[in-house]
Here is the input.
Amino acid sequence: MDVSSAFTAALSLIFNLDPQFLQVVGLSLRVTLSALLLAAVIGLPLGALLAVARFRGRSMLIVLVNGLMGLPPVVAGLIVFLLLSRSGPLGYLGWLFSPAAMILAQTLLVLPIVIALTRSAVEELWREYREHLTSLGLTGRRAIPTLLWDGRFVLATGLLAGFGRASAEVGAVLIVGGNIAGYTRTMTTSIALETSKGDLPLALGLGIVLIALTIAINAAAFGASRVGARFAA
Amino acid sequence: MRDVTSILPLVVKGLSFAADGRLLLDDVSFRLPKGGVTVIIGPNGAGKSLTLRLCHGLLGPSGGSVQWQGESSRRRHAMVFQRPVMLRRSARGNITHALGAVGLADASDRADSALARFGLAALADRPARLMSGGEQQRLAIARAWALEPEMLFLDEPSSQLDPGATRQIEEMVASLAAEGMTILMTTHDLGQARRLGQRILFLNRGKLIEDSPSEAFFAGAASPEARAFIAGDLLW
Here is the structure.
């Protein structure tokens, strides 16, 4: 196998607009972006709350969340698998081996990253804003909307980190999705499959597309935050 | 002022504040009637900023009390800090945010009139954090003024500014006082205290040493500490 055949495979994948390939890319993006959206909706307010609230066990909770940033994807997959299996507590949903299960597993992976990075960014902002916001009567959770809005450009970086984690992982989606062709097959599970089948050019081609997509999305987010960051000087 | 009843006089009784076992403010009492500029002076660590924060309610006292008169649905005293806290928004956005926070209607119109009042209209859409130090402090005062406070606390409002910006701040403070706003401010600039203050509270090591009209204070302070402070001696 040589590198040029990998690039040829990558280019033919892209320019032939192979419907199967497009389906795989589409599902990958759908799962990852849905998980990111869910994690943002849950994680941004929770992270901000953790930054401004003072309660017993707060430090322990922060350590726990920080630690969960390194949760192994296969373990997250296993947890969701157990939850969704026939005899599991959420088995009645019938989600196992479906995109919904994959979204759930990736949300579990991204959530600690979003919470931890939001907590640290908002805490720093809170230190700076506290007296002014307190003077305006915005204390505790009433301060959260202001802090999230003013921290939006830093928080976008945290979301990008979450996106990177979700788009790159294979273990969780493989366990709960099952890598079913045309239904739950993503770019990462395809790469794992093609590698084990020995079709290395195709695997590498898919890898190149995955990297290119990740860079493109990061570039777009970076550009957007640069435009807005003049307000966050 | 729209509310009929006044929150003044402000009555401070036996105010004390301790942190980490150290008494930083010790039994301070004074009464602040409506109107005029009162300046708190004293060496570093005397408790000047602390007194303002306790009066404004940013901190709770360890002992004693801060009493406002009447009842009001919202806080009718505002505070401007030594280092202005600028939100990551435009100049106008900073004011509309504050108005929204305290629930004042017509935020946009009020913000525009506050900007115009203090000569900041041309900077309305500038990101606040990219403005100069003097512009930021003027914006902080405009933002506080927009809240229609009856009383304004200013904590060393010009200590980080050059002479030109300092003069602008002093003019703003003087014009607010002339319109009837009650002002309690701290400074370490004796010239500023003399120029702006009608009444001087001299603090040293957490104690209120002297409370006199400005002229009398600078003509001949009663306490040796205050005389030494005016003369520029270090106080320990």
